[in-house]
Model the fold of this input.
Amino acid sequence: MRTASFSATVGSSKLSVHNSLVSIAFFALCVMVVSAPITQDGMSAGTTSMTEGNPIRQLAYVLILLFTMVGAGIHRDFRGLSALAADIRVVLAYCWLSIVWAIDPSIATRRLALTTIVAFSVAIAVKSLGVTKTIAHVRIVLMVVILASYAIVLLFPSIGIHQPEAGRDAALIGDWRGIYPEKNFMGAICAITVIILYFQEIRRLRVLNWIFIIASLIFLIKTGSKTSTALVLLALLMGHAFRANNHRDWPLAFAVAMTGTFCAGVILLWYGELLLEPLDRDDTLTGRSQIWRVLIAYISDHWRLGAGYGSFWYIGSASPVYDYAKGGSWFEIASQGHNGYLDVASQIGLPGLAITLYFLIVRPVAKLLSRSEYNNKTGALYMASFVFLAGHNFTESTLLARDHILQFLIVVVISMMNTVNYECAQHRYDGSTGKVNSNC
Done:
């Protein structure tokens, strides 16, 4: 009996150590993701270093994946790699296929490797930690970012608030950017902090939660990020709508919404030039319409395959932007097209965009609306996250964007949904009573 008890104690201790290792690795991953705009070379400077990447960051991500795999025991059983949801695997597989026709396969491979490493790290960690601990890790890191950003704004306003800079849009002056080089990323951080804290199922520290929600909303307004401000309100509204309605009432509305979105996309593609004419000024949408015109022109000519993953922006003189933009255009040194859907289509073609949208947004949302296991406050968090992520990509490019916080959040949400599916499958049949659990 003592031997069995001792063995159980040792086994429990080893499990605790492994869980702690996964927990530390995932926390480090969250820190790496939120600090990416600060540590990623050339992101805001417009230098060629973005084609080379930061080897220290890349090594850090590899080490995080290795520690996550060891903590989850995958070094002993590689079947644990199946933790990555099938939806994400399909999209990544198509992106890897695009390396075959990529304009610069070397750069494309490095960028896609980072995207894949982050996705596997998240999926393995979420399955090991569970939904509650995963959200707790993300929440803590986001709260630290909000605190640090307030400290920078109050103590070092010349750093935390946009100042007059040569070559910068004068409209940015006075907008809060916190610890980041520009305000839009800070706006997205504030928005997802509000969404996660608002819909998190937590009874303790409720007052602290509300303090951070209000602080994040104030900071979001001060960033002047109109997209994030509007979308966070829409996301909160949709999250409440999800909680208030029975999931069985949603299929028809979902089908109508998806059909409308598809039709809008087709209209934008084929009549984009005509629709963008009223926006064809440098100051409209802070110049985004100028970039979109170039992307639409390229997609029209290369709609089947695109340039290959990561092979449109910042690959040097081979970038297609030089062929489609007027010589000397300011956005020739841009790192993104400020529209995630156009950027994905320019990289992996319209078929690739369709695959990405279906497996990363449409299919997960359809599951969310049709399965009763998500009919709770956590399900509302998932819904609000998808609404924000889908809307944000109309003016910013975060879809399949390596370690961007919003791409990270997509993988986190889908992985948590996958974990809920797995746990429900495990507990669907109650062995003690011989009955099926109807809640799953």
